[in-house]
Protein 1
Amino acid sequence: MLYKKSVSFKMTYDSEVDAAYIYIYEAAPSGVDRTVTVEDDNLAESVFVDIGKNSELIGLEVLDASKILSKDILDKIKQ
């Protein structure tokens, strides 16, 4: 079954270090248990996934964000 619904996530961007964070859970009940690197040749060492103690997705950290995220997304985060 396919579900379609617009969902908003909190996102932050630090231009000094060119890093963005996309919060799936703003305050995860179990806290971050581990961080996993996305295994992709184009994203290696740039995208990290935070996973909670109950194996829930908590958030995504994006380093070199200006190279990976679109200008439109970064502009929206900065507003």
Protein 2
Amino acid sequence: MILDSPQSRLIVFGGFGGYGTPGFLNDRWQLPLAPNPSWSLIGPTGAPPSPRDGHVAVFDSDRRPDDLSSAATTARTG
């Protein structure tokens, strides 16, 4: 999970949806922090990374945080 301060939102990538189906995930969600927080799915801007959990994401204010493909590096993958 990262905090995108300039756009006042949280972004979550991937995770684990349970054993079997869906298993590891590679979806992205955002939560605007104001005025009415509500989670929404963010579509990929290119080919998404493989499904994973246990990864690390880093916010870089000089780059768009929507591109988490280079941030999600070390993880358990399915």
